[in-house]
Structures are given as structure tokens and as C-alpha cells.
Amino acid sequence: MAREVAESCVDAVVIEMVSAFCDRFYSAEPELAARRIEAIGYQVGHQLVERYTVDCPRFTDHLEAIKFICKDFWSELFKKQIDNLKTNHRGTFVLQDNMFRWITRISPSPVPESKNESPTPSEDNQLAQATSMHLYFPCGIIRGALTNLGIPCAVSADISHRPACK
Amino acid sequence: MAPAAPRTGDAVFASVERVNAELFTLTYGAIVRQLLTDLEEVDEVNKQLDQMGYNIGVRLIDEFLAKSNISRCVDFKETAEVIAKVGFKIFLGVTATVTNWDAEGTSCSLVLEENPLVDFVELPDTCQGLYYCNILSGVIRGALEMVSMKTEVTWVRDILHGDDACELRVKLVKQIPEEYPYKDDD
């Protein structure tokens, strides 16, 4: 049986890695921090995809490879598949995960108690920035995986709705 | 009566969410690699890994206490056993052996025969001074500090440097008396 570790180990290491690069090593240069985090993800994706494709036949086209990422690869990582895959048939693919595990537990750092109920735009902005830092790692993983499958690409992430209580 | 605290972490590990260890191992490896590139000095990498571990340990202790149902340990010997048999098991799925106690009962060795962090890893000659798993010593130090124990954790043996197991030396420096941050009349 494959060796397993508690999911919280991965969470702890990834969260600490992001905060170390953003808040300690490159606190003044968020773009550099982002590049480093993406590079770490790239390395991980590049190596993981090799292990996960051991028993796969060679992919015949890009769509096959993308489908592999959406199904098998995503399931190994997050125990679920990508929820929605769209493409413009010109080389752009949109992968949508409606319940992305690595950001479901992100909350804004506690701000001094403010009187107003709704978050101010600047708080909201800060949260968006913190969340986006956490997305460079999975983006790097996908880029690393696809590159190793012979598809050089650029990967970016968007969040339409952040996790919230209703 | 409260249920007896488990002496092993098997049941808890079976019940928590788990992931394939490869993701964890490779992620950690990629982080170490990036730190080596960025910081250049091996000593500095050791320091940063320890610091990252410390920050994780400070937070992980809460999760540990919540999941393990362990209450106060009577002495440091029990603490060491709990870390080895329950702590490592719950998170990494492996157990350690506690040996080499000193006469005072304040320092001991945790021996890990198996260590998921070092799978696939080989150190190049340029990294001979690297404590690759230094994050682990930081985690233990951070976690114990949150339960009033100031410790020093050092590496004695390391599989990556050709030893047959990983051995961590844990030394209890002092018990921090509990201080309540509030007064009665607050």
C-alpha cells in the first residue's frame, strides 16, 4: 500500500512555505515571492506527473493530457476531480474546481475590531492578495505537470467566489 | 470518567484525512531545494527550516491535543513517549523509539527508522552540512514550547548522511511555569 501522511501535514507545510516566502524572505517584493512559490509548485508537478503516469499509455493530443490532469491527477492530489472543463479550441483551457481544498480554510488575518459590519474595500483587497499568493503553488504544479507531458504552457488562477459563510 | 488516553496514534491516524505521502515528500523536497538556491548558505537553510518547523509546531500542537485526547503528561519521560508513539503516528504515520535517557531523565533520543521526508532524497556533496529534516526538530521544539517545555532538539544520526536511522536528541531545558495573563478582578 502506498504510504500516507495526514492531510494536515501538507496543509501545514504549504501554508508555512507561502508565509515564509511572502512575509519573511521577500516581504518587500511580492512578485519575487510569487515566482519562488510557483517554481516550487513546478518542481512538484514535474515530479508527481512522472509517478502518476507510469501505467498510462502516451497521450495522443493536448485534450487527452488535460483530461488526465482534470481526472486522475486532480484525484490523487485532492480526492476529487475538476468540476468543469472549458476550452476555446485555440489552446486555452479553463479548469474549474468548485471546492478547492487548499483555500477553503483561508481567513483574513484578524483586524482590530471595527464597528462596521461589512469588510472595508482595503480589507477585502488584502484578503484577495493573501489568497492569490496561495494559488501560485497549485498553478506551478499544473504547469510542471503539463510541461513534463510535453505541453509548455502558462497557468494562472482566478477566484470568482472566495469561501464564505452564508 | 474520562476515556483513557490512547497509547498509540493508530486509531487517530486511521480516522484523519490522509493524502498520498508523495505529494508531501516532494513538496518538502522542492521547498528545501528552493531555499538552497535562494539562501546559498547551508547553515542559513538549516536555520530557516528550523524556524518554519517552529512556526508549524506552535500551531500543530492544538490539532494534536484536539485529536489525540491526551491530557497532561506526568513527566518528561511520558511526554517523549507520547511524541514518539502518538505524535509522529498521527501526522506522519510512523512511530519513533525513545532511547538513551540520561541519568536525570531530561534528555533522550527519538529514533525514526522510517521517515517519509527522506524518500527519494539523496544529498549532493555540496550539502553535507545540511540537516535536511530540520523542520522536524523545529516542530517538536515549537509544539513543546506551547505546553510549557523549553527544549533543545538536535540531530545525532541521519539516514541521508549514511546512518541506519534518523536520531533526534531532545533535551528539556526548563519547564516554564504557567502564568496566567489575566488577574482575578479583570
CATH class of chain A: Alpha Beta
Instruction: Please report the first level of CATH classification, the CATH class of chain B.
Output: Alpha Beta
Give the proportion of residues in helices of chain B.
Answer: 40-55%
Examine the coordinates and then state which fold CATH places here, giving the name of the CATH topology of chain A.
Answer: Muramoyl-pentapeptide Carboxypeptidase, domain 2
Strand residue content of chain A = 5-15%
Which features would summarize this protein structure in a list?
heterodimer; A: 166 residues; mainly alpha; Muramoyl-pentapeptide Carboxypeptidase, domain 2; 4 helices; B: alpha+beta; 4-stranded antiparallel sheet; 44% helix; NO_sig/Golgi_transp_ligand-bd (chain A); TRAPPC6/Trs33 (chain A); TRAPP_component (chain A); Trafficking protein particle complex subunit 6B (chain A); Trafficking protein particle complex subunit (chain B)
Task: Please give a structural write-up.
Chain A is mostly helical and 166 residues long. Helices cover 52% and strands 7% of the residues of chain A. Chain A has helices spanning 7-25, 30-52, 62-78, 121-148; strands spanning 4-6, 84-87, 93-96. Chain A has a two-stranded antiparallel ribbon with strand order 2-3. In chain A, strand 2 (84-87) and strand 3 (93-96) form a beta hairpin. Chain B has helices at 10-15, 21-39, 42-68, 76-92, 134-146; strands spanning 18-20, 97-99, 107-112, 149-157, 166-175. A four-stranded antiparallel beta sheet of chain B has the order 2-3-5-4, with helices on one face. Chain A binds chain B through residues 2-10, 12-14, 16-17, 19-20, 25, 36, 39-41, 43-44, 47-48, 51, 76-77, 79, and chain B through 13, 16-24, 26-31, 33-34, 38, 48, 51-52, 55-56, 59-60, 63, 90-93, 116, 119, 135. Strand 1 (4-6) of chain A pairs antiparallel with strand 1 (18-20) of chain B, so a sheet runs across the interface.
